[in-house]
Design goal:
Protein name: Pyruvate/2-oxoglutarate dehydrogenase complex dihydrolipoamide dehydrogenase (E3) component
Number of strands: 22
CATH superfamily of the largest domain: FAD/NAD(P)-binding domain
Number of domains: 3
Oligomer: single chain
Organism: Longicatena caecimuris
Strand content: 25-35%
Family: Belongs to the class-I pyridine nucleotide-disulfide oxidoreductase family.
CATH class of the largest domain: Alpha Beta
CATH architecture of the largest domain: 3-Layer(bba) Sandwich
Distance between the termini: 65 Å
Structural class: alpha/beta
Largest sheet: 7 strands, mixed
Helix content: 25-40%
Radius of gyration: 23 Å
GO molecular function: flavin adenine dinucleotide binding; NAD(P)H dehydrogenase (quinone) activity; oxidoreductase activity, acting on a sulfur group of donors, NAD(P) as acceptor
Number of helices: 13
Cofactor: FAD
């Protein structure tokens, strides 16, 4: 049985970066990935990169041309990720399905057969998979997609139903609408993105409605069925309790994601999972077995590639460093939703800050008041900041505007450094930029 210093299961951001670190220190590493189409992880192949490629191209290329360009980008990045590890003499890249035999032994199976290998350290970075809702007919109806699959279709649907009004659903609704697809979003709740403040959710809704997206709130999709080879009938109960039907070319399931642990046989290694199936970890990302770690989506929590990367930093520090990095001291974590314009947030919402007992003050700025927004010809949106009324420290910020995915990182740094609203209000920004609007936003306190 071949022995390794470290075995990585899953070619995600955390594992691939950690594999290179182990190899750099002269350690022998096995990287096991079940599919040659997933080298580099979900982000590169099925998530962030392909979806943002299609989003950026909306309104600039035809859907078919955009799909081809997306495939070109993902193929290049997938190859680079594979070669970076495969060319390292200390790393064996194994394309196979892996499972635990015991606390140190991994079995992997591919077309060449089944083998077992031993690892001193083991790392699980297998990501997450879509949650398939319990809707009648969903298993055998054609033209039902999850996000990864719909991005592989060459033909643009003229009509699209999206089940779920969360962040993934919103991104795809905005994207497809801007390619000219008629989009209807079915949302079980009474409004969008409930973790956001109601005023911000309303802004997002109004922007998307102006792009042509239609929303069915308080709706419950009951069944789907094919009416012919090209259409799907969606039967749903609307907000008034009436049974309605909508015929569309395609249905996108955007009802959340769960930890990808099926087939790993974690129980054979004594690795515990929570009620949702995610791997339980401590603040150092150790599982119930101290030499087995979990990184990224598979451990639950925020599902972002940059969290998987920071997980790598925590694990690296725990094994090779001074053990100071933990999940408790990450600081504020920003996120962006790539609708048009982009929605970004960091820190607390207004409602969260109030619930935490803060005496707060709130500042807002309409995007139409930003000179660069007029230059960009994108004047929709709003900026909002929340601060502690007693200390003037920044508690949170929402940016619904072009380039917010870049701007939010500056605000995150300010929060993590404990800066005050006046520090940003008086900061010197280049001109004309969207970032300089932060002067005005934080100057409104």
């Amino acid at each position: 049985m071949k022995k390794y210093d470290a075995i990585m299961i899953g070619f995600g951001k955390g594992a691939k970066t950690l594999a290179a670190e182990f190899a750099k220190q002269g350690k022998k590493v096995a990287m096991i990935e079940k599919s040659s189409k997933m080298y580099g992880g979900t982000c590169i192949n099925e998530g962030c990169i392909p979806s943002k490629s299609l989003i950026v191209q909306a309104g600039k290329r035809t859907f078919s041309d955009a799909i081809n360009k997306k495939e070109e980008i993902t193929s290049i990045l997938r190859k680079k990720n594979f070669e970076k590890l495969n060319q390292n003499p200390n790393i064996d890249v194994i394309t196979a399905k892996a499972s635990f035999v015991n606390t140190h032994v991994i079995s992997y199976e591919n077309e060449k057969g089944t083998k077992e290998i031993y690892g001193d350290y083991l790392f699980v970075n297998t990501g997450s998979v879509p949650i398939i809702p319990n809707i009648q007919g969903i298993e055998h109806t054609k033209h039902i997609y999850v996000s990864a699959d719909i991005m592989k279709e060459k033909e643009q649907p003229k009509t699209l139903a999206i089940i779920g009004g969360g962040y993934i659903g919103l991104e795809f609704s905005s994207m497809f609408a801007r390619y000219g697809t008629q989009v209807t979003v079915f949302e079980y709740g009474d409004r969008l993105v409930k973790r956001e403040d109601e005023d911000i959710a309303l802004h997002i809704q109004q922007i998307l409605e102006r792009q042509g997206v239609q929303f069915e709130f308080k709706s419950n999709v009951l069944s789907v069925e094919n009416v012919n080879d090209s259409d799907v009938i969606v039967t749903y109960k609307n907000k008034d309790g009436n049974i309605q039907q909508l015929t569309v070319n395609a249905v996108l399931l955007a009802t959340g994601r769960k930890a990808n642990t099926d087939g790993l046989h974690l129980e054979q290694a004594g690795v515990e999972t929570d009620a949702r199936g995610a791997i339980k970890v401590n603040r150092y990302l150790q599982t119930s077995q101290p030499h087995i770690y979990a990184m990224g989506d598979v451990k639950g929590g925020l599902q972002f590639t940059y969290i998987s990367l920071d997980d790598y930093r925590i694990v690296k520090d725990h094994i090779f460093g001074d053990k100071k990095r933990t999940t408790d001291n990450r600081g504020a974590i920003p996120y962006s939703v790539f609708i048009e314009p982009t929605f970004s947030r960091v820190g607390m919402s207004e409602e969260e800050a109030k619930n935490e007992g803060y005496e707060i003050k709130v500042a807002k700025l309409a995007v139409s008041a930003i000179p660069r927004a007029h230059v960009n010809e994108c004047k929709e949106g709003v900026l909002k900041a929340i601060a502690d009324a007693k200390t003037d420290k920044i508690l949170g910020c929402v940016l619904l505007c072009t380039a917010s995915e870049e701007m939010i990182n500056f605000v995150q740094l300010a929060i993590n450094l404990g800066l005050k609203t006046s520090d940003i209000a008086n900061h010197i920004f280049t001109h004309p930029t969207m970032s300089e609007a932060l002067n005005d936003l934080f100057g409104n306190f």
